[in-house]
Amino acid sequence: MANDLKTFQPKEYYRKFLEKDVRPDGRELGECRSTVVNIGSITTAEGSALVKLGNTTVICGIKAELANPKADEPKNGYIVPNVELSPMCSAQFRPGAPGEQAQVLSQFVVDVLQNSECVNLQDLCIVSGKLVWMLQCDMICLDYDGNVADACVLSLVSALKNTCLPKVTVNEETQAIETDDKITNNLKVQTTPVSTTFAIFDDHFVIVDPTIEEETLATGIITIVTKEKKLCMVHKPGGTPLKDSQIQLCIDRAIERSGQATKLIDETQCSLDR
Amino acid sequence: MEVDRTSHELRPMTCELGHLSRSDGSATLTQGDTTVITSMYGPGDVRISKEIIDKATVEVTYRPKIGLPKCSDKLKERLIRNTCETVILSGLHPRTGIDIILQEMQNSGSFLSCCINSACLALLDASIPLKYLIAAVTCCISDKGEITLDPDLKQEKKSVAILTFVFDSKDFNVVTVSTSGSFSNEQFQSCLMACREASKHVITFYRESMLKKLSKSV
Amino acid sequence: MADHVGSLFLPGDLIQNLKESEATKKILLGPGLRQENDLILTSKPGILRFREPNVYWIDSPQKRYVPVKGDAVLGIVTQKMGDVFRVDVGASESATLPYIAFEGATKRNRPDVKVGDIVFARFSVANKDMEAELVCIDKHGRSNGMGVIRDGGFLHHCSINQVRKILNPENVLLKTLGKNMKFETAVGMNGRVWVKGRNINETIAIINALAVSEFMTNEQTLSMCKKLADSLAGF
């Protein structure tokens, strides 16, 4: 009986749960799914992290390359994030060139890095004007079960905290680049941006961390990225208009969540060092 | 010439409606020096793969002034498309397509809000059924914490954060938010309130423009 | 906002104090108005108009045609398929016109219609969920001026408003032009007007007059037509 209602009238099915302040998977409206972070699993990459938000799984790998800096920014390195959504994670994606969703997510991650100033690009400089590090960050979604944006940001930040760059010196006489793999420096990550996504359902229910079914039924989405207690991005692309009080509730919840996520990353980092 | 403008006023806005002969609706909006041309077609044909059986398919294309559209423009298109989808009564035109094309003419600050406002004007020009109107306002926070509405390019470069809000014309609730840079919760709330006041001027501007257009054809 | 017949409304505006008809205690909401719970809101920008006893609608300028049942339109035949013709009326998709829907047509006696012909027809089915259907006969089975339009002439595209203006009995354009020249015309509600004058010069003159009269008042139209008649006569 419940399955019939879910197939034929998914909104009605959902409404019945929301009226009792729960969701079909047993969570409360303000509860996030269980988060698992695994750091350093890819040994061939300079930094890596795997994040599981419920079923949504994103793995981020960071490879460092040497490059020439831009002429007008001689001391700045590059961080190039790229989100890949392949048919492996969901049937809605087709093989081939990145679709709109992948491009939108990649741009979102670029904006988060820029707004939060998570890594100072000048830390990536080796020789000003000649040689800088370029960090290629590939986030590959392994399972698309809603809220991939939060998982991508979390995996990227965890991977950056895990990144170790080898020491590079330029021989003054021969101009040859010498890489010393034995001495590595940890990448300095200044702040920890954490993103929290809320879905708006039926104009007045606001739920945290939507699953894929909740995302398709939602009438709007709002994503808030916080670093410590400050906001660095509020992203609401259209969707049902929200009242000021609802936005304030979301911001408060996001700040709470950011504290939990930062603690989780730090604990995982510590357990790795041990 | 630098016009002396208080920080809580919008730059002067002018627009031209219906000047493109081929499209169903068109608008050129100028806010200060920022200019965007929007043309729209609809409700018209749509590819069967993109057809939705109970709603109209809204598609937005953004063309920058120089070069081809980049990855960063896709996020802009997604924002504008979702904002327009909220406003258009797409249930009245199922299995059709509504295409909105934006062309950047000049970017002198507050670009995203100029795009959204000109898209709204083009929708009005084509007489597409809408739930309510949308008004977009950009503001920036300087390093001293001052809020300036509708900044030009120089003010944007010196700022710590740039926030764009889009309000609906019925209850003035927030439809869309897009921010860059970092700011505190209190700064966010004060920007929200300042932009809300300013958006009422944008709605008045829409009303005046439509009045001018309709007085010609009575 | 109070009820102001004749003033501009934008989408999302609230309309109050509408007059109900005494007989049925109902108000008829025409195009551009919609009901949400107990409120009446506008959905299109335009001027609120009223007609006795209880019909309200928003008069808004539009270029794209949306099929409405009962409208007479000019379409161009694009395809012959099975039992129907596909006709382009300028809407989001083509309308169908069955072979049988012509005067005197039967299964054996097919109407003489080729791809590319102009037809003047009326919508028998037109709603948002179904494909639109046209017919060239009225309910009594007579063609009543509808059917294929032959022998030349010129098909001109204009906006929906222009067409409504021309068909308005108060508008003087067609009457004034008719005083000086003899011509045949068919006006489709989808923004298409077909004109055939005595010769090519007159046809082109009439089409030009139609094109420029979109934003003119009656006085301006009169003086423009007078100038046109003068120049055709050679002055």
UniProtKB/TrEMBL annotation, chain A:
<dbReference type="GO" id="GO:0071038">
    <property type="term" value="P:TRAMP-dependent tRNA surveillance pathway"/>
</dbReference>
<dbReference type="Pfam" id="PF01138">
    <property type="entry name" value="RNase_PH"/>
</dbReference>
<keyword id="KW-0271">Exosome</keyword>
<feature type="domain" description="Exoribonuclease phosphorolytic">
    <location>
        <begin position="192"/>
        <end position="256"/>
    </location>
</feature>
<dbReference type="GO" id="GO:0034473">
    <property type="term" value="P:U1 snRNA 3'-end processing"/>
</dbReference>
<dbReference type="GO" id="GO:0034475">
    <property type="term" value="P:U4 snRNA 3'-end processing"/>
</dbReference>
<dbReference type="InterPro" id="IPR001247">
    <property type="entry name" value="ExoRNase_PH_dom1"/>
</dbReference>
<protein>
    <recommendedName>
        <fullName>Ribosomal RNA-processing protein 43</fullName>
    </recommendedName>
</protein>
<dbReference type="Pfam" id="PF03725">
    <property type="entry name" value="RNase_PH_C"/>
</dbReference>
<dbReference type="InterPro" id="IPR027408">
    <property type="entry name" value="PNPase/RNase_PH_dom_sf"/>
</dbReference>
<dbReference type="GO" id="GO:0000467">
    <property type="term" value="P:exonucleolytic trimming to generate mature 3'-end of 5.8S rRNA from tricistronic rRNA transcript (SSU-rRNA, 5.8S rRNA, LSU-rRNA)"/>
</dbReference>
<dbReference type="InterPro" id="IPR033196">
    <property type="entry name" value="Rrp43"/>
</dbReference>
<dbReference type="GO" id="GO:0035925">
    <property type="term" value="F:mRNA 3'-UTR AU-rich region binding"/>
</dbReference>
<dbReference type="InterPro" id="IPR036345">
    <property type="entry name" value="ExoRNase_PH_dom2_sf"/>
</dbReference>
<feature type="domain" description="Exoribonuclease phosphorolytic">
    <location>
        <begin position="31"/>
        <end position="166"/>
    </location>
</feature>
TrEMBL record, chain B:
<keyword id="KW-0271">Exosome</keyword>
<dbReference type="GO" id="GO:0000176">
    <property type="term" value="C:nuclear exosome (RNase complex)"/>
</dbReference>
<dbReference type="InterPro" id="IPR020568">
    <property type="entry name" value="Ribosomal_Su5_D2-typ_SF"/>
</dbReference>
<dbReference type="GO" id="GO:0071028">
    <property type="term" value="P:nuclear mRNA surveillance"/>
</dbReference>
<dbReference type="GO" id="GO:0000177">
    <property type="term" value="C:cytoplasmic exosome (RNase complex)"/>
</dbReference>
<dbReference type="GO" id="GO:0071051">
    <property type="term" value="P:poly(A)-dependent snoRNA 3'-end processing"/>
</dbReference>
<dbReference type="GO" id="GO:0003677">
    <property type="term" value="F:DNA binding"/>
</dbReference>
<feature type="domain" description="Exoribonuclease phosphorolytic">
    <location>
        <begin position="133"/>
        <end position="193"/>
    </location>
</feature>
<keyword id="KW-0597">Phosphoprotein</keyword>
<dbReference type="GO" id="GO:0006364">
    <property type="term" value="P:rRNA processing"/>
</dbReference>
<dbReference type="InterPro" id="IPR027408">
    <property type="entry name" value="PNPase/RNase_PH_dom_sf"/>
</dbReference>
<dbReference type="GO" id="GO:0034475">
    <property type="term" value="P:U4 snRNA 3'-end processing"/>
</dbReference>
<comment type="similarity">
    <text>Belongs to the RNase PH family.</text>
</comment>
<dbReference type="GO" id="GO:0005730">
    <property type="term" value="C:nucleolus"/>
</dbReference>
<dbReference type="InterPro" id="IPR001247">
    <property type="entry name" value="ExoRNase_PH_dom1"/>
</dbReference>
UniProtKB/TrEMBL annotation, chain C:
<dbReference type="InterPro" id="IPR012340">
    <property type="entry name" value="NA-bd_OB-fold"/>
</dbReference>
<keyword id="KW-0963">Cytoplasm</keyword>
<dbReference type="GO" id="GO:0003723">
    <property type="term" value="F:RNA binding"/>
</dbReference>
<dbReference type="InterPro" id="IPR004088">
    <property type="entry name" value="KH_dom_type_1"/>
</dbReference>
<dbReference type="Pfam" id="PF15985">
    <property type="entry name" value="KH_6"/>
</dbReference>
<dbReference type="GO" id="GO:0071051">
    <property type="term" value="P:poly(A)-dependent snoRNA 3'-end processing"/>
</dbReference>
<dbReference type="InterPro" id="IPR037319">
    <property type="entry name" value="Rrp40_S1"/>
</dbReference>
<dbReference type="GO" id="GO:0005730">
    <property type="term" value="C:nucleolus"/>
</dbReference>
<dbReference type="GO" id="GO:0071035">
    <property type="term" value="P:nuclear polyadenylation-dependent rRNA catabolic process"/>
</dbReference>
<dbReference type="InterPro" id="IPR049469">
    <property type="entry name" value="RRP40_KH-I"/>
</dbReference>
<feature type="domain" description="K Homology">
    <location>
        <begin position="153"/>
        <end position="199"/>
    </location>
</feature>
<dbReference type="InterPro" id="IPR036612">
    <property type="entry name" value="KH_dom_type_1_sf"/>
</dbReference>
<dbReference type="GO" id="GO:0071038">
    <property type="term" value="P:TRAMP-dependent tRNA surveillance pathway"/>
</dbReference>
<keyword id="KW-0271">Exosome</keyword>
<keyword id="KW-0694">RNA-binding</keyword>
